Amino acid sequence: MQNNKDSNEAEAYQVRKLEITDKNKGFMELLQQLTVCDPVSDEEFQNRFEELKSCGDDHVICVIEDATSSKIIATGSVFIEKKFIRGCGKVGHIEDIVVDSSARGLQLGKKVVCFLADHARSNGCYKVILDCSDDNKAFYEKCGFKQKEIQMVKYFI
Amino acid sequence: MQNNKDSNEAEAYQVRKLEITDKNKGFMELLQQLTVCDPVSDEEFQNRFEELKSCGDDHVICVIEDATSSKIIATGSVFIEKKFIRGCGKVGHIEDIVVDSSARGLQLGKKVVCFLADHARSNGCYKVILDCSDDNKAFYEKCGFKQKEIQMVKYFI
Fold it and tell me: Can you point out the beta strands (E) in A7-113?
């Protein structure tokens, strides 16, 4: 039955917040598909996890776990910047969106981005921003984003 | 004497961290030259100031005060994002750079950007990033930045 199938798929691809046990479910290997991501020790992972957790809703990392394989197959993060402009307004910054190469086409990226944007909105942000390559512009437009400025970078190492 | 003049100028345009009394020195009016910046009450200002102060080195707003007029004539901010990628690396995000229209040409913008980039570097960031308009690209190139990606935005209000 179509309804059961849809409901099973929805169940299989739920977005949730990162948990400390996700290190053993391929979270770091997934990030390696995004950029340079050296292995980190359990202690380093735990320390960073605790640091981020102490930020509460101001810095959230979400994941999608494949219920069948128990592997993390999508992730993204958002942190909330507190400003003085716009009546002491807040801005959500989305970072590090990645979907496992074997799980493309399932709209998981859109699910993650919507989850993070909703989080920013429900925490009082007046906008959410992100930086991406030209190649990914069309994807973010489908998520309701528009191009605004350019990103500049200065590397220290 | 040239040396005294230079030394006086350096004295007159020192970069320092935002202080709570800067609200009465034109800090909010300066931000109005950047974007929409509604007036905020002293209580709202103090609350936001304390929130940011509690972040310590992870979120710093700096200013330049004109020693003659006691007005804030330049500002900028940087916050440090903690990641899992790059061996639990950190990234500095520069925001809200503005120089008073009457103080252009004194290299104050560059001073502010260098202060914030140095802060990010000395706090262990592997890079510092910012978003700007095409019009400001040349200025940030003079500060050592290169264009990398594009910025996407989604407004909630």
Answer: 15-17, 59-66, 71-82, 90-99
Q: Say yes or no to pLDDT of A15 above 70.
A: yes
DSSP state of A24: G
CA B136 to chain CA centroid, Å, is 15
The complex scores an ipTM of 0.93
Q: Write the DSSP string, B7-24.
A: HHHHHHT-EEE--GGGGG
Residue A109 near residue A139 (C-beta atoms within 8 A): yes
d(CA B6, CA A139): 52
Q: Residue B4: which residues within 8 A CB-CB, separation 6 or more? A: none
Beta strands in chain B (DSSP E): 15-17, 59-66, 71-82, 90-99, 125-132, 146-155
Cβ under 8 Å to B: A residues 127-156: 127-134, 137, 140-141, 143-156
What pTM does this model have? 0.93
Helix, strand, or coil here: B124? Answer: coil
A7/chain B closest Cα distance in angstroms: 29
Torsion sign, CA atoms A106, A109, A112, A114: negative
- B-facing residues of A in 48-87 (CB < 8 A) are 48, 51-52, 59, 61, 77, 79, 81-87
CA distance B29 to chain A (A): 10
Measured CA to CA, the distance from residue A100 to residue B87 in angstroms comes to 20
Q: pLDDT digits over A24-63, tens only?
A: 999 999 999 998 878 899 999 999 999 999 999 999 999 9
Measure the CA–CA gap between B71 and A134, rounded to whole angstroms: 41
**Burial class for A148, CB neighbours closer than 10 Å (0-12, 13-18, 19+):** middle
- Say if residues B116 and B96 touch (Cβ distance below 8 Å): no
Q: How far apart are CA A21 and CA A41, in angstroms?
A: 13
